[in-house]
C-alpha cells in the first residue's frame, strides 16, 4: 500500500501540482501628478512616514476605492467574469477597511494594520490571496504614475497557510471507487467520483464535461478533453487545457460502462454529461459520498480536491517525470503538448504511464 501521508513534502517539492505592466492605454488622470524632490523620494523608499509634500495640498485623497476604479477601468477586460466578480468583492472589502486613507502617503504600518484586520475573521491563506489583489492595484498605481511608492512587499503570511486539504491513501482510493461503482450506471454521481479518481481533474473541470469531450483517438486511447469550448465552460488557465487518458480497470474503473453513459447522453440529445450543477456536485461528493464511502476512515479535510493531491503524490512516489505529471494535472509547460496541439509528449505515452501507475497503485 502506498500511503500518501508525506503529501505536505510533496506539495513543497511539486508546488504547482498541488494548488497562477502593460501600460498601453493613456494614463487616467486623477488630479495633478505630484513631483517629488529627490530627498523626499528617498524618504518614500523607506518604511517610515514620508515627509509632507506641498504638491499634495488641496488634492482629494487617493483612496483605495478611487484607485480600484481606475485600475478596473483599465484591467477589467483582462479578467474572466468569475475572476472579475471576486476581484470587485475583494476590492470592496479592502476599500471599506482602508477608508479615506490617502495612498499617496500611506505607510508600511497602514498595510500591516490592514492585514491584521483581515486575518481576524479569515484564514491566512485567504488573506494572502486578498493581499495579492491589493498589490496588483498598488503596483498598477505606481506604473501609471498615481503612486511613487507601495509598501506591499513581504506582507503575506508564511506560517499557518498550509492547505487544510489532505491526500487519500491508496486503500481509501479503493474504497471510494468501490462506493462509486455501486451507484447506478446511469447516475452522473458515479462518473463524477470515478473520473476524479482516475484523472485527478478539478471538480469544475469534471462537472462541465460535454459529450463531445469524450474522445477515442486513432490509437484507440479514450481521453477526456478538458477545455473551455462551449457556453459557460471555464478552465483555470490556458495550461489547464489537456487530454487525459482514461485507464480501464484502474481501482475497478469500468470504461465500457462509462462510454455507455456517454452514448446514452448523446442519444437523448444532451450536450452536458452532468445531471447536477457544480455546486450541488461539490456538496454531494464532499458532504455525503466521501464520508459514507470511508466510514470510520474518514478524516475532516478529505474532499474531492484531495484526489488531485493523491494522484500527484502517487506519481512522484513512482518516479513519474515532472513534465509528464504536469501534463496529466493541467500544469503543463510549453513543451508538454498532447497530440493535436503540436510536438511534445504523445497522449499514448501518458496512457501507458497511467496504466503502469494504476497497476502498481491498485495493489
UniProtKB/TrEMBL annotation:
Record carries keyword Ion transport: no
Pfam families, per database record: Phage_integrase
Keyword Transcription regulation recorded: no
This protein's UniProt keywords: DNA integration, DNA recombination, DNA-binding
InterPro entries in UniProt: DNA_brk_join_enz (IPR011010), Integrase-like_cat_sf (IPR013762), Integrase_catalytic (IPR002104), Integrase_recombinase_N (IPR010998), Tyrosine_recombinase_XerCD (IPR050090)
SUPFAM superfamilies: DNA breaking-rejoining enzymes
Annotated Tyr recombinase domain residues: 163-355
Entry's family note: Belongs to the 'phage' integrase family.
Protein name as it appears in the record: Tyrosine-type recombinase/integrase
Organism: Pseudomonas petrae
Amino acid at each position: 500500500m502506498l500511503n500518501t501521508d508525506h503529501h505536505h513534502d510533496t506539495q513543497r517539492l511539486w508546488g504547482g501540482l498541488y494548488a497562477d505592466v502593460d501600460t498601453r492605454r493613456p494614463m487616467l488622470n486623477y488630479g495633478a501628478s505630484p513631483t517629488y524632490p529627490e530627498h523626499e523620494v528617498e524618504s518614500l523608499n523607506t518604511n517610515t512616514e514620508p515627509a509632507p509634500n506641498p504638491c499634495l495640498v488641496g488634492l482629494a485623497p487617493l483612496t483605495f476605492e478611487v484607485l480600484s476604479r481606475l485600475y478596473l477601468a483599465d484591467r477589467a477586460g483582462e479578467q474572466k467574469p468569475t475572476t472579475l466578480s471576486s476581484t470587485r468583492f475583494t476590492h470592496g472589502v479592502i476599500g471599506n477597511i482602508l477608508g479615506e486613507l490617502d495612498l499617496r502617503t500611506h505607510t508600511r504600518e497602514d498595510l500591516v494594520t490592514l492585514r491584521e484586520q483581515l486575518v481576524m475573521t479569515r484564514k491566512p491563506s485567504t488573506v494572502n490571496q486578498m493581499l495579492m489583489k491589493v498589490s496588483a492595484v498598488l503596483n498598477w498605481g505606481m506604473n501609471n504614475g498615481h503612486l511613487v511608492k507601495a509598501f506591499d512587499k513581504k506582507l503575506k503570511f508564511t506560517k499557518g497557510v498550509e492547505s487544510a486539504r489532505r491526500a487519500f491513501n491508496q486503500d481509501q482510493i479503493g474504497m471510494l471507487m468501490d462506493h462509486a461503482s455501486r451507484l447506478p450506471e446511469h447516475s452522473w454521481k458515479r462518473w463524477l467520483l470515478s473520473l476524479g479518481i482516475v484523472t485527478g481533474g478539478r471538480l469544475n473541470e469534471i462537472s462541465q464535461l460535454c459529450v463531445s469531450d469524450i474522445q477515442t483517438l486513432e490509437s484507440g486511447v479514450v481521453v477526456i478533453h478538458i477545455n473551455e469550448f462551449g457556453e459557460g465552460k471555464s478552465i483555470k488557465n490556458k495550461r489547464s487545457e489537456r487530454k487525459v487518458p482514461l485507464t480501464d480497470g484502474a481501482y475497478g474503473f469500468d470504461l465500457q460502462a462509462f462510454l455507455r453513459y456517454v452514448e446514452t447522453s448523446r442519444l437523448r440529445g444532451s450536450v452536458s454529461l452532468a445531471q447536477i450543477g457544480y455546486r450541488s456536485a461539490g456538496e454531494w461528493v464532499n458532504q455525503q459520498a466521501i464520508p459514507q464511502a470511508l466510514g470510520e476512515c474518514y478524516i475532516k479535510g478529505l474532499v474531492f480536491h484531495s484526489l488531485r493531491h493523491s494522484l500527484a503524490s502517487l506519481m512522484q512516489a513512482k518516479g513519474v517525470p515532472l513534465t509528464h505529471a504536469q501534463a496529466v494535472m493541467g500544469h503543463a509547460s510549453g513543451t508538454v503538448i498532447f497530440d493535436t496541439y503540436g510536438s511534445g509528449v504523445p497522449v499514448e505515452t501518458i496512457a501507458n504511464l497511467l496504466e503502469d501507475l494504476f497497476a502498481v497503485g491498485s495493489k
